[in-house]
Amino acid sequence: MIAEVGHYALLLALALALVQATLPQIGAWRGVASWVALAPPAALAQLLFVAVAFAALMAGYVTSDFSISNVAANSHTAKPLLYKVAGVWGNHEGSLILWVLILALFGAAVSVFGANLPPSFRARVLSIQGAIAVGFLLFTVASSNPFERLDPAPFEGNGLNPLLQDPGLAFHPPFLYLGYVGFSMAFAFAIAALLEGRVEPTWGRWVRPWTLAAWCALTLGIALGSWWAYYELGWGGFWFWDPVENASFMPWLAGTALLHSAIVVEKRDTLKSWTILLAIITFSLSLLGTFLVRSGVLTSVHAFATDPARGVFILGFLLFVIGGSLALYAVRAPALKGGGLFAPISREGSLVLNNLLLATACATVFLGTLYPLFLDAVSGGETKVSVGPPYFNGTFLPIMAPVAAAMAVGPFLPWKRGDLAGALGRLKAAFAIAIGIGLLTWAWQSDGPVWAILASALAAWLFVGALTELAERIKLGRAPLAETLRRARHLPRAAYGMTIAHAGVAVVIVGLTGATSWQSEKLQIMRAGETVALAGYELRFEGVRPVPGPNYDAMRGRFTVSRGGRPVTPLEPETRVYTDPPMDTTEAAIRPTVTGDLYAVVGDGDGAGGFATRLYYKPFVHWIWLGAGIMMVGGLISLTDRRHRVGAPARPPAPARLEPAAAE
Q1: Contacts with 34 (C-beta within 8 Å, 6 or more apart), sequence order
Q2: Residue 98 and residue 170: Cα distance in Å, rounded?
Q3: How many C-alpha atoms does 233 have within 13 Å on its Cβ side?
Q4: Which burial class, exposed, middle or buried, applies to 221 when counting CB atoms under 10 A from its CB (0-12, 13-18, 19+)?
Q5: Which side of the chain, N or C, has fewer Cβ within a 10 Å radius?
């Protein structure tokens, strides 16, 4: 019965989404206040019914109701409870329900927290959200129903993909979807502004908190996925430029540019047309990721569906959303005139440079990701090419280096017109420390690549530059302590957030540099009692023993690690064999430290008492995820800034009829 309740709730949510997508939009166009007022309650009601459907599917997983086809295909009675819950979104149909639930959550948030938005504008925003929900709900109901029944019901289910039975992957998709779907709010605000024919500075303030929230969630989602790949897949890497990885990275790059561009709209009433376009592109890239994962054009552990019919539906929806929004942009954008002029050397100019470089980097990733798929499609499968890490490392990284260098300088430039020499003069300490770090790195790793030395200096430049800018704001060392504390207390939280986020980027650069430039590795066959020296450590292999798991059998190896004859820690990697569904997985043993990770993997035996082993020392690799966490914390602190909660002055109650928008 609960499955039927969930299915019926989806149908009701679809009906409400249709109402939300049409009547408020018509009401805003024709000035009918009663129709405009339908948008908030429709959004809240849609959230209620989608939540009921999601809860019904989760109940099926928790109780192992194998009469539901989706549960039977992706769950098992022996699976731990956490992975039964994660199984709800660890498949195509369930992930769509999660997607729509998050979409409804954002719509409900606008209904509750958007009271200071002009009524007609809020109605348009919610109407666009409703239209997006219609597309996904229709797709779910028509071709991806998660509540289909099996008769007779099987006694046992197939189980979740063992690679996904991991805490990192349990929480990775929800945060990723919060980012993907969160950018729909920026898209909705952009389309609503185009429909009304005007973009004012307040629009930049309205759109920034929603974009910032999505950016924080997507940052965490990407970091969790990278962390999972590092310790779960057993190859010691954290990023392989996989097309599905790129599908999440592209909207992150575009969203980062959007965040900075919206600042210029708010502060200087310019870059309006470009910011609107960025909002459209960012959400379009999120939809592209949805298409890649669900269309069947890719085979990946990240991919859900392989049904071409589903891919055609998503492609059609993708073309409709992107084509329609770009057509509207082409018609309305010429009327969006910027109000503020600025010199190339200025705060605005630095943000424009930031946007141009980020957009170019995003285009580089886009080309490398889609070119092989496009060539395969036009050649009928006869021509296949592979675009891998050498392409991305050779094109993307050189573009991003100037972004990091400029991040330290931009905050020192005033609005409208600046003095580059003066800004650089205030960064003398950062420059000196960067040179010193570069020289120390060269002395420590003189046989390493030159670019690693430059990257270390760049990280120091950015980190110290961010702290210097904060010190300048509070007049640290240039005013009495009481004055400094007063200024620090009254400094906007967004300023602290910017400093922390920029410092986080510097930490990520250190992690990437260390893990890719100074890694040590040993790959060999080892027998019990043998020892391998690695990066100043001695790792003695003690052998392998069988270990039972909750829903798998494992062979657990053991290494005892010592340094200079003194014991450090044991490492116990595993190879696991799952039966439902059948699959072998590798569980690395990792000893993280501030300066680097010891990483051990044990593989198959050779039949003569030896086992394949892979041992790595990865300097600073955990700084990658530490830096990503710092960036997210900076974003969250910025999100708490009071200015983000004040969208517009409170307005008097709406009259019985609203005036049509001036441009319509």
Answers
A1: 27
A2: 13
A3: 16
A4: buried
A5: N
Cα separation, 22 vs 124, in Å, equals 9
CB contact at 8 A, 42 and 56: no
Render pLDDT for 614-644 as a digit per residue (tens, 0 to 9): 999 999 999 999 999 999 999 999 999 877 6
Q: Give CA–CA dist 247/241, Å, rounded.
A: 10
Token pair 């066959």 is found at: 525
Radius of gyration from C-alpha coordinates of the chain:
27
Q: What is the pLDDT of residues 141-162, one digit of tens each?
A: 988 899 999 988 888 888 777 7
Two structure tokens written together for 653: 């109650």
Phi, psi of 342 (to 5 degrees): -150, 155
For 167-206, the pLDDT digits (tens) are 777 788 899 999 999 999 999 999 999 998 888 888 999 9
The whole-angstrom separation of Cα 369 and Cα 291 is 13
The answer for residues whose C-beta is within 8 angstroms of residue 328's C-beta and 6 or more apart is 191, 194, 195
Per DSSP, 652 falls in state P
Q: What is the C-alpha to C-alpha distance for residues 487 and 481, in angstroms, rounded to an integer?
A: 10
Which tokens is 583 given?
A: 């699959």
Which H, E and C letters describe 511-525, residue by residue? HHHHHHHCCEEEEEE
Q: How far is CA 487 from the centre of its chain?
A: 34
Query: What H or E segment, with its residue span, contains residue 265?
Result: helix 243-268
DSSP string over 286-319: HHHHHHHHHSSS--STT-----HHHHHHHHHHHH
Query: Closest by alpha carbon to 456, among 389, 394, 512?
Result: 512
In angstroms, the first-to-last Cα distance of the chain is 49
Neighbours of 167 (CB within 10 A): 12
Contact 167, 81 (CB under 8 A): no
pLDDT band at 380 (very low <50, low <70, confident <90, very high): low
Identify the three-state secondary structure at position 13. Answer: helix
Q: Alpha-carbon distance 351 to 257, whole Å?
A: 9
Q: Answer yes or no: are the C-beta atoms of 456 and 402 closer than 8 Å.
A: no
Distance CA 397, CA 361 (A): 8
Other Cβ atoms less than 10 A from the Cβ of 233: the count is 17
Handedness of CA 617, 622, 625, 630 (dihedral sign): negative
Burial of residue 383, with CB atoms counted within 10 A of its CB: 0-12 exposed, 13-18 middle, 19 or more buried: exposed
Is residue 451 within 8 A of residue 398, CB to CB? The reply is: no
Higher model confidence: residue 234 or residue 351?
A: 351
- Name residue 614's beta-bridge partners: 523, 601
- What's the whole-model pTM score? 0.91
* Residue partners of 453: CB distance under 8 A and separation at least 6: 438, 441, 442, 445
